[in-house]
């Protein structure tokens, strides 16, 4: 198996990742709007930009992912088990087709961003 090399590879990963998220009852209530193919396609393009920026320093993602999730949490509370499920599906989607340093970078960054997100959500809950 080869390593993640470009945006096409990242697209393969996010497509499989979202198939997994949408078919898992433990987490799919967050993702219902992405059952619409056009909404999903637009979102996956944003995710490819996000990971392209992290793995290949492309400068393609200039939005605020943290703020989106803090807003999401108000309507759909994000619990520790949701983060575990999310991370497990991401790892599985990578491992299906790829292995190597870039896979490791992507997984490590996902875990560290998820950890910061959980801390910020916790702070938000304590201050409300
Ligand atoms: C429990 C875990 C998570 C859930 C349930 C979740 C769910 C979602 C949902 C529903 C959206 C769409 C928000 C919207 O457009 O209204 C979204 C966007 C996004 N998520 Fe997550 N997420 C989780 C964790 C993460 C983590 C850990 C990362 C990064 C490592 C991440 C990266 C992103 C990015 C980049 C977007 C696009 C934000 C934008 O529009 O710029 N997510 N997420």
From TrEMBL:
Domain of life: Bacteria
UniProt keyword annotations, A-Z: Heme, Iron, Metal-binding, Transport
InterPro entries: Globin-like_sf, Globin/Proto, Hemoglobin_trunc
Keyword Repressor: no
Keyword Iron annotated: yes
CDD domains for the chain: TrHb3_P
Record-given protein name: Group III truncated hemoglobin
Organism encoding this protein: Namhaeicola litoreus
Lineage of producing organism: Bacteria, Pseudomonadati, Bacteroidota, Flavobacteriia, Flavobacteriales
């Amino acid at each position: 198996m080869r390593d993640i090399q470009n945006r096409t590879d990242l697209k393969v990963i996010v497509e499989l990742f979202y198939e997994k998220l949408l078919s898992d009852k433990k987490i799919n209530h967050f993702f219902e709007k992405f059952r619409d193919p056009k909404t999903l396609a637009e979102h996956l393009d944003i995710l490819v930009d996000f990971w392209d920026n992290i793995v290949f320093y492309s400068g393609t993602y200039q939005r605020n992912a943290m703020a989106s999730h803090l807003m999401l949490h108000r309507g759909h509370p994000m619990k520790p088990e949701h983060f575990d499920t999310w991370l497990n599906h991401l790892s599985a989607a990578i491992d299906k087709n790829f292995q190597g340093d870039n896979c490791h970078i992507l997984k490590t960054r996902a875990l560290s961003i998820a950890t910061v997100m959980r801390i910020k959500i916790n702070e938000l809950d304590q201050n409300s």
